[in-house]
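Mods, move this if it's the wrong board.
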Amino acid sequence: MKIKNPILKGFHPDPSILRVGEDYYIATSTFEWWPGVRLHHSKDLKHWELIEAPLNRRSQLDLRGVGASQGIWAPCLTYDKGTFYLVYTVVKAFYCNMYDTENYLVTAQNIHGPWSEPIALNNFGFDPSLFHDEDDRKYMVSMVTDHRVPKKYAGRLVLQEYDAIKKKMTGPVREIYQAEEIFLEGPHIFKRNGWYYLFSADTGTGEGHGQTIQRARDIWGPYEMYRADFMERTEKGEAYSILTSRHHHDILLQKSGHADLVETPEGEWYAVHLCGRAGRERNPENASRFAGERRYPLGRETAIQKMRWTQDDWLVLDYGNEPQGNVPFEEIEGPKCGEAFQDKEKLWITEKPVRDDFNSASLDMEFQSLRIPMNEHYLSLCERPGWLRLYGRSGLSSKFSQSLIARRWTEFSFDVSTKMEFEPEVFKQMAGLILMYDTDNYLYLHVSHDEEIGKCITILRAENKKYSYPIGFQEVEKGKSLILKASVREERCQFYYGYDEEWLQKIGPEFETGFLSDEACQEGWFTGAMMGLACQDLTGFGLYADFDWFEKRDF
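Not the wrong board. Structure tokens:
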């Protein structure tokens, strides 16, 4: 049997994996999207289902004002003696000289929550990871940011003890890794056969990304980096990676690195790691960032690889160091995809319909909002049963109070559509269907009002703060529901609209969508393209739009 990669498609970076009994869990980064940290559950490492987010209260997480691709970075999920531990970074400032990287811990007795209020840890850098030693002592390892010019080292990792009784960091902070050439981040520590292993991502998070492993007899080091003949290196200073796709630009899983490890009950080892599937478009050769590089509109995803131990106790991929698109695994007996236990603790995969009719009292977990929870000030599922009501708030550039919900692109080709009722009175009132990367980059098919023609439909295109209305404003009938649709095929998007699902007409030209990607955006470059619904009322009166359904169909 095979596991087909990626296992978590679209914008699921920095995976941390955990097994408790027969259950596996993966935590991934969410950055500026609310709620914080995505959790997925599996019974077999192949089929995964989204479960409740741990950071789902305003008291736990306030992302108002954070920039694109800031917010929640690289969570680490662990378990010890009946308690789940989740450490993570909240990045408040990154595109500057001095980074603000606040590290926190929350705990829970049940993976489904409730999770505790955050405990502040140290702020040396991002990517914290908690290790539970055999003597019940706990340690946190993280990378260190250096704002000095020039930096003293290319990369540093620090270790400090955590006191679980006092709920605070304690003792000295010691550097356990420093290097002038090889930059490491995303560190995890695990122990086997008397060795402490330091498992870290190398070389950024782009196409040069990889994963290294070091070991020491003492948790404080010194650590020795594994170097072997199979690790292809083409230049001085290149990392010694046990996993990388930097020398194989033709394979499916690019950007491979930032991994974490899990052991099955049968004693087999697997690594989950971030990766990316390259699109067809490239940045221009004269681009100010990432000139000429391939674009990845789906963002960084999560894949899995089979691992094995060498005779001298080093961990390697089961097949060289090139990530595989299909991974062998032994399928367990039990319920298959599409079936579910009644017991929530043993929940399996239930295939969701492609259409969300908004008949539930709560929003589907696939939807996220920007920076803040969508409470009754922003949306309602009960004011008009069977409809989602979005109250118009701030504009699409707001980093504080947007009425917007969205979900991830998971394939390069898909259709997304909605049925909307909206009666704007002035041009400052808008609502519709949006394809977006961040607050500066989107395609927005929406209804508004024009002084000359009245109720109208238009498309707003934003690319790195350059705005245009490529089709002008076209009249639509008052008092009628509208169907809005985007059909994306391999980074080409055609919009449609109409009053009947069976009779939709094209609106506007075919748009390129590759600019909705990590490489093309000027501010953020760590998330992925999203699709969703939005409503703005810049008058401050909160005019609402009603949505009957939302449909996403992948191809």
